[in-house]
Specification:
Length: 363
């Protein structure tokens, strides 16, 4: 990728770190909402370079991690059907349901395929008219345009054998839930740049105002993250509230208006369960009723699904910033990427996976 180097420039990183050490006078808890940022922070050891007064906690912005267990169990039930080709992004395959994961369904003969885009799943539906093709449409605002495009494409092609299992989550309601919790520790937020690239950041000033906090729109390269933290700490130290866009090369206040418009034609806002957290009102997107024919939950009669969550997994507390992955008694012992007890250990954006991969051998 062009221009990556300048966002990993050691001299710029050192300057930002020195400035953070110079200006920080008090203890601050800052949450990066996005699991992609969590991985970058752990990969580059950014948390170790900060002044000791700054604590980073990790938010719920990992779509795989917050997909409700019941929906994963539904995915497993659909994927096990002989008339179905089940398609998904790769990191969903090892996410544990109550008893199984998609890998074990595939090992038992289920036709489970990894795709890189929902449009690939539409193509599979075209090529397999005698099969039902289902795409597991998980994600935050970022993935919504591609997911709804697949529905529009399938409709235009008059496909009757394509549907999606929807798990679309929205960031601003999750921020409300975290900041409104009586146990909240978060004093400043790094907002996820890719979500804001689609939706803009116009939704955030009322949140900053309501909870009297600074919110910094932040990118994903090390220099982006350091500048996001520096901007946030400057605001915290000055007692400023409000939103600053520290990712202007990608994000505008209004976001991608054509993408927002197309999302609205296919999705409506609805209440949503978050794995480990619970119900957050108006925190998801569901398919509009006129697209019921493409709604896998309505297409397949799955009967009653009884879920069973791991009794030791504390992922819900990690996703709200109450605890860190290495405070989980199962971390690196019963729970590893090969033997995951929770989704945060397998997702490429999961906090437990980031700690396991980059920080488990730290002294
Ligand atoms: S280490 Fe495993 S069991 Fe512990 S919180 Fe993370 S995913 Fe859950």
């Amino acid at each position: 990728m062009q221009f990556t180097k300048e966002f990993r420039n050691p001299a710029l990183a050192k300057a930002a770190i020195n400035e953070l050490h110079r200006i920080t006078t008090r203890n601050w808890v800052i949450m990066e909402i996005c699991g992609g940022q969590t991985h970058a922070i752990m990969q580059y050891g950014i948390d170790q370079l900060l002044p000791p007064q700054i604590e980073l906690v990790h938010g719920p912005g990992c779509p795989v991690c917050v997909t409700p267990l019941k929906l994963i169990d539904k995915a497993l039930a659909i994927a096990a059907r002989p008339d179905v080709i089940f398609t998904s992004f790769g990191d969903m395959l090892r996410v544990p349901g109550s008893h199984d994961d998609l890998f074990s369904i595939r090992a038992d003969g289920g036709d489970v395929r990894t795709v890189y885009s929902p449009l690939d799943a539409v193509k599979i539906a075209q090529e397999n008219p005698d099969k039902e093709v289902v795409f597991f449409a998980i994600g935050f605002e970022t993935t919504a345009p591609a997911n709804v495009m697949s529905i529009i494409q399938a409709k235009n092609l008059e496909l009757t054998n394509y549907s999606i299992l929807v798990s679309q989550a929205l960031v601003p309601p999750a921020m409300h839930a975290i900041l409104g919790s009586e146990n909240n520790r978060v004093q400043g937020f790094l907002a996820a740049g890719h979500v804001c690239a689609i939706m803009g950041y116009w939704e955030y000033p009322p949140i900053a105002e309501q909870y009297q906090i600074p919110i910094t729109v932040t990118g994903f390269e090390p220099i982006d993250i350091l500048n996001g933290i520096l901007t946030n700490v400057r605001q915290l130290e000055a007692g400023d509230i409000g939103v600053i866009n520290a990712y202007p090369r990608v994000v505008t206040e209004q976001g991608n208006l054509p993408a927002q418009k197309i999302i609205e034609t296919v999705y409506r806002v609805c209440d949503r369960q978050w794995r480990g957290i619970g119900l957050i009102p108006q925190s998801g997107w569901c398919l509009r009723e006129e697209f019921d024919a493409f709604n896998a939950e309505k297409k397949f009669d799955l009967g009653h699904i009884q879920t069973q969550e791991s009794s030791v997994c504390i992922a819900g507390q990690i996703l709200q910033g109450f605890k860190k992955p290495d405070q989980c008694p199962a971390f690196g012992k019963e729970c590893t990427p090969r033997t995951p007890l929770g989704a945060t250990m397998v997702s490429s954006e999961g906090a437990c996976a980031a700690y396991y991969r980059f920080a488990r051998n730290r002294k």
